[in-house]
Amino acid sequence: MSKYNTKKQYDQSLISHAIDVVKSRLSIETLAPGLKKASNTEYHMPCFWCGGTNRFWWNFAGTMQGKGACRQCNISCDIIDIYKKINGIDNIIEVIKQVAPETLEQKDFKEFQPFTEQPPKNDNKIDNKIKEHWENRCSIQGPGLIKRLLCDRRKIDHETVDILIKAGRVKSCNHTGVMSVAFPFLSLQGEIQAIQFLTIDEQPFPFTTKGENCSPANKVFFKGSKPGGDRFFFAGQPIDQAEGNLFILEGIINSITMAQFYPDACILALGGSTYTKKLEALKPYLNRFEKIICCGDNDEAGQKLNQAIRAALGGENK
Ligand SMILES: [Zn+2]
């Protein structure tokens, strides 16, 4: 990203994200219409800089995807350089203002606290091993890895993922030798009680494929994790601040997907364990929501979730 000169008043992570959005919105096909493929990976075309006919090539696939170069004037460039050249702009901020202006608005990220008011009485013990692992061994230095799983593979938008990263609700981690994305399960007091790891490319963790009765898994909990009881993955706003809706989902990815569309709601993932206890813990907070929307998978676990919710609501229809 350092090749782009950015003005100081913008946060660097904001600019990085804005540049990603700009790149996703620009295409060589619209900037240079009427292109013909010269091979399975390249277009050849007149150069935007020297005008050399058919001396410029653009890689639309392969290892050089998104890069172009000219055999006459030796310029090498990406799609943003071409946009700048065509439009006579020399400043990346100006490009962003034209192509993705909304990305320059600094978002107000809420703190990583499920509760902002007086928390309920806490009888959970804090497992320092889990806390230490989350704080020191899991990192936000690998946003590319996090985005490979969440954006590229699971099609969640970059903005939602950036909010999660900034709020400390996702990190990356080398877990048993495999680069993984890590998610925290918190008690209602906001203390970390469990960490779930998902492999980046959704391959099973090697240690789950060994032995006779193995069940290969791309999703595992950190040793000593206690995801049961009143612990949740929080994808949305604090439970005592959220407006309107409470979403209760089974899995983390589903809850993040929902957070894209309902950024002001409280969105919880139960994480697959005994639902009854979890819903019991939520009971004091259910009344403040207009709607409680529960999306269980279409299977046995999903049905149990629906039953547990009805029991917790005591027959109230919401
Ligand atoms: Zn040229």
Any descriptors?
318 residues; alpha+beta; DNA Primase, Chain A; 2 domains; 8-stranded mixed β-sheet; 10 helices; 32% helix; elongated; binds zinc ion
Secondary-structure map with pairings?
Elements: H1 12-25, H2 28-31, E1 42-45, E2 56-59, E3 67-70, E4 76-78, H3 79-87, H4 92-99, H5 128-137, H6 143-153, H7 158-166, E5 171-175, E6 178-187, E7 192-199, E8 219-221, E9 231-234, E10 245-249, H8 252-261, E11 266-269, H9 275-286, E12 291-295, H10 300-313
Parallel strand pairs: 10-11, 10-12
Antiparallel strand pairs: 1-2, 2-3, 3-4, 5-6, 6-7, 6-9, 7-8, 9-11
Helix pairs in contact: 1-4, 6-7, 9-10
The chain binds zinc ion.
Commentary on this structure:
The longest helix has 14 residues, at 12-25. The chain contains ten helices and twelve strands. The chain is elongated and about 75 Å long. The chain has helices spanning 12-25, 28-31, 79-87, 92-99, 128-137, 143-153, 158-166, 252-261, 275-286, 300-313, and strands spanning 42-45, 56-59, 67-70, 76-78, 171-175, 178-187, 192-199, 219-221, 231-234, 245-249, 266-269, 291-295. The protein is an alpha+beta fold and 318 residues long. The strands form two sheets. Strands 5, 6, 7, 8, 9, 10, 11 and 12 form an eight-stranded mixed sheet that branches. The protein folds into two domains: 12-104, Zinc finger, CHC2-typedomain (DNA Primase, Chain A); 128-313, no CATH class. The structure holds zinc ion. Zinc ion is lined by residues 47, 49-50, 52, 55-56, 70, 72-73, 75.
